[in-house]
Amino acid sequence: MSTTYFISDHHFGHKNIIDFENRPFSDVDEMTSNMIAKWNAVVRKEDKIFHLGDFSFLNKERTQEIVSQLNGYKILILGNHDRGRPRTWWLEAGFDEVSEYPLIYMNFFFLSHEPMYMNKQMPYLNVHGHIHGQKYEGRHYYNVSVEQLDYTPVSFEQIRDSVVVDEEQA
């Protein structure tokens, strides 16, 4: 049985992100190899993974090399740093599906790169990235930026179960 995973904001090839977000890597090569290893430690070839944007700052050839090393059926929701390239660029780089817009998953989860405004009465959860080490308060948001997850994709079940725990504690 396959599992569905989520993650965002790898910023492959972005040297300055190491300092901006205080990432524990000495250079982009170490960051790249570490993030690929952490992805493949949990995601199997038969799994599905949603990448919620800001995947790579590299050229298509180098991005393709990275994508080809990553397990799973890969769906990219374009982030602010991905939008300079058309959907076709990302498909040619190896993503199985690419969306320019947020998606709704399982009729309850809004998948987006940037956090979406969620009214307190709304029964939905916004799974997002973009804000890296920051976190929105409240039960309506789940940040899947790599900095929040020790660079390791998180499963749908982990997200779902954390929402149930939060509601029981509320």
Task: Walk me through the structure.
This protein has 170 residues and is α/β, with parallel strands linked by helices. It has a single domain (4-169), classed as Purple Acid Phosphatase, chain A, domain 2 (4-Layer Sandwich). 29% of the residues lie in helices and 18% in strands. The chain contains five helices and nine strands, in the order E-H-H-E-H-E-H-E-E-E-E-E-E-H. It has helices spanning 17-20, 28-42, 60-69, 87-92, 156-169; strands at residues 4-7, 48-51, 73-77, 97-99, 103-105, 109-111, 125-128, 141-143, 154-155. The strands form two sheets. A five-stranded mixed β-sheet has the order 4-3-2-1-9. A hairpin with a 3-residue loop joins strand 5 and strand 6. It starts with a strand and ends with a helix. This is Phosphoesterase. One of its GO terms (molecular function) is hydrolase activity.
CATH architecture: 4-Layer Sandwich
Task: Kindly report how far apart the N and C termini lie.
Answer: 33 Å
CATH class bucket: Alpha Beta
CATH topological fold name: Purple Acid Phosphatase, chain A, domain 2
Question: What is the tally of helical segments?
Answer: 5
Secondary-structure element series: EHHEHEHEEEEEEH
- Structural class by helix and strand composition: alpha/beta
Approximately what portion of the residues adopt beta-strand conformation?
15-25%
The CATH homologous superfamily is called: Metallo-dependent phosphatases
Low-confidence stretches: none
State the strand order across the main sheet.
4-3-2-1-9
Count of domain modules: 1
Average residue-wise pLDDT = 93
Task: State Rg.
Answer: 15 Å
Secondary structure: helix percent: 25-40%
Main sheet characteristics:
5 strands, mixed
Bulk shape = globular
Q: How many runs of DSSP E, i.e. beta strands?
A: 9
